[in-house]
Amino acid sequence: MAEIIDFAKAHDVGVIFFEELVSPKVAETVAKAIGAQTAVLSPIEGLSDEQRLAGDDYFAVMRQNLTALKAALQ
């Protein structure tokens, strides 16, 4: 993890992404160590009941991922 933190610091990483289906603990630890934020990306392994009820599909979730990536790059 120290190597990841060193790399992130050296490259001025501002956002650490993690998948919505996994624990955010490692991402939060790295983000805290470098003064960054965390954000969630969907691996699109499947839609949750909530997403299906909202009418989301593969493309909607990909657009959400793109929105998160764009925000991180600004």
In brief:
This protein has 74 residues and is an alpha+beta fold. It is built from four helices and two strands. A two-stranded parallel sheet has the order 1-2.
Tell me what you see in this structure.
The protein contains 4 helices and 2 strands. The protein has helices at residues 2-10, 25-34, 49-53, 58-73, and strands at residues 15-19, 37-41. It has one domain (2-73): 3-Layer(aba) Sandwich (Rossmann fold), CATH 3.40.50. α1 packs across α2 (25-34). It starts with a helix and ends with a helix. It is of the alpha+beta class and 74 residues long. Belongs to the bacterial solute-binding protein 9 family. InterPro entries: Bact_metal-bind_prot9, ZnuA-like. Keywords: Signal, Transport.
What attributes characterize this protein structure?
74 residues, alpha+beta, Rossmann fold, two-stranded parallel sheet, 2 strands, elongated
Q: Please identify the structural class as seen in this structure.
A: alpha+beta
Under the CATH scheme, the architecture is: 3-Layer(aba) Sandwich
The tally of helices reads 4
Strand content: 5-15%
Helix content: 40-55%
N-end to C-end Cα span: 26 Å
What's the number of domains? 1
CATH topology: Rossmann fold
Helix-strand pattern: HEHEHH
Shape: elongated
Question: Rg from C-alpha positions?
Answer: 14 Å
> Biggest sheet: strands, sense, closure?
2 strands, parallel
Major β-sheet strand ordering: 1-2
The CATH homologous superfamily is called Nitrogenase molybdenum iron protein domain
GO molecular function: metal ion binding
Protein name: High-affinity zinc uptake system binding-protein ZnuA
InterPro entries: Bact_metal-bind_prot9, ZnuA-like
GO biological process, one term: metal ion transport
